[in-house]
Amino acid sequence: MAGAIAYVSRDTDGVAWRKVLEAGLGPIDYRTLAGGLGNTDEIEIALAWKPKPGLLASFRNMRMIVSLGMGVDHLLADDRLPEGVPITRIMDDGLVGQMSEYAIYWALRHHRDIDRYEASQRARTWKPEEFVDTIHRRIGVMGLGTIGQDTARKFAMLGFPTAGWSRTAKEIAGIETFHGADGFREFLARTDILVDVLPLTRDTKGLLDGKAFSALPRGAYFINMARGGHVVDVDLLAALDSEHLGGAALDVFNTEPLPPDHPYWTHPRVHVTPHVAGATNPRTASPGVIENIKRLRAGQPLINTVDPKTGY
Ligand code: OXD
Fold first, then answer.
1. Of 145, 205, 263, 289, which residue is most buried, by most CB within 10 angstroms?
2. Is 90 exceeded by the pLDDT of residue 1?
3. Best residue among 280, 281, 284, 289 to mutate for probing ligand 1, ranked by most atoms within 8 Å of CB
């Protein structure tokens, strides 16, 4: 039998992944953190989500690492990550769809003043709010990978003027695009609802600081479904407190779980969700993983590979 496949995540017991992998590959030597990894020299492939630093380095014969998230910062944060072992990541249409739903949900809530109507209902007050036309609510999506493009296209389909910002230049039909440090301020200045789906890399850590928030128009709304590490929290709180920002929907945080005493929990203009914007679904994520396992074993080039230098 081929080498072992190890499920290295504490999020679930790994049973769902075992089922989908067996359905695609037949009998496999499958091991989990929960059930015990056995002789780790036998591990050929690691399916990993937030592995303990140094653990993957102990799999001496490992030939491929599969990130169980579309983001790979959880792997690259490990300074003992074995060099030369290819890193691939899941590409999950299900997760992509969930992420754009999340952004659209919070954007529409803000766009249609639902927080205010909820407060009015609690006060039994019949009070129509001033309406902003869709064509005057500008969406800006930071990050134009698979998730960003899907999200931007769906906003554009709803009739919102939509722009995207990415590190390098991209052209996407129906979306105005900006790129690089030079395009960042201009992008922010035309954005009423900012949606963050960037990867967390050396270049994007702390990118959303006081300067960035003040470049947004007054009253702008911020949706973060990427990584908390992009945000300088004190600056976001200051922008919310001064009402320069109208509100924020935050799914990801610098520290997760969000500590119980963190001001975001009780901030009147912040909605907090526990990193659930997009959950990896083994059913929709497994075809690409199975394809890569077959390719690895047949000596063929892998798909969905990650460049550790760019971080995505
Ligand atoms: C991911 C995530 O990276 O869920 O896929 O955060």
1. 289
2. no
3. 280
In sequence order, what DSSP letters do the residues of 176-228 get, joined into one string? EEEEHHHHHHHHHHT-SEEEE-----TTTTT-BSHHHHHHSPTTEEEEE-S-G
- Residue 252 CA: nearest ligand 1 atom is 6
Instruction: Tell which atom from ligand 1 comes closest to the C-alpha of 68.
Output: 5
d(CA 252, CA 245): 18
Structural domains in the chain plus CATH codes: 4-92+280-298 (3.40.50.720), 93-272 (3.40.50.720)
Task: Answer yes or no: 275 catalytic.
Answer: yes
Give pTM, 2 decimals.
Answer: 0.94
Distance (Å) from CA 135 to ligand 1 centroid: 31
pLDDT digits (tens, 9 = 90+) for 207-266: 999 999 999 999 999 999 999 999 999 999 999 999 999 999 999 999 999 999 999 999
| β partners of residue 47 | 7, 66
